[in-house]
Amino acid sequence: MPIVRIEMWTGRTVAQKKELARVVTDAMVNIAHTTAEATIIVFEDIAKNDWSQAGVLASEEA
Q1: Which end of the chain is more exposed for a tag (fewer CB within 10 A), N or C?
Q2: Is 4 in contact with 24 (CB distance < 8 Å)?
Q3: 13-35 pLDDT per residue, tens
């Protein structure tokens, strides 16, 4: 049973997540030879205050 975690900044719509879930599930079925029913996708929305790259919070970037 594959579990796919998608971490991204908050702000994506339900429609965007539905489309991502569909496309990623289809890719897992076609490439990893699993089934849609066995594929689990977990979305984790992360606030820009909780994301840093190169020592700079994403909320501080221009």
Answers
A1: C
A2: yes
A3: 999 999 999 999 999 999 999 99
